[in-house]
Amino acid sequence: MLNLTVTIHTQTMPKIELQTEIKADRNIVFDLSRSIDLHKISTEHTNEEAIAGKTSGLIGMNESVTWRAKHFGIYQNLTSKITEYNRPKYFADEMVKGAFAEFKHQHHFSESNGGTLMTDLFYYKSPFGILGKLADKLFLKKYMTELLTERNRIVKEFAESDKWKEVINEKSTYGNNGNRCTTL
Length: 184
Fold this sequence. Notes:
Helix content: 25-40%
Strand order of the largest sheet: 1-7-6-5-4-3-2
CATH class: Alpha Beta
Largest sheet: 7 strands, antiparallel
Radius of gyration: 17 Å
Number of helices: 4
């Protein structure tokens, strides 16, 4: 028996695509990208904190996290859930509840030049119909691109140094040389 799920979007969702070359093992980059603790570091400027669900460590398939952060001068809550997971190549998180009408953030990791190419595809739909579309064009897409770019800068900074060991429990997850030795 073949089960198919088809999702049809009646209108095109804005897309942000970022590619980041990182001189580090793909497993480390993958885990840093799903680290709740590293996300907190990369969003300090928005006072972002995990307040429910998975609030620290590495988030995995079917786990969710609720974030509280200050954007545009207003504190907001957003809950996202890991809906797709193929370690260490890909995972996706989708908004369950929050300020957007919907969003899906795809995280792709491929080996490249002895390191990792991290590709983010962030699809979102603003609330408020035509006013939301206007907000996209005026400031929202730029704002979200800057947030994701800063997050990727922090992932790169930690992955290319020994800082990754501060947010990933290396003793249970990695051997002495940074290679994966257990499954999460």
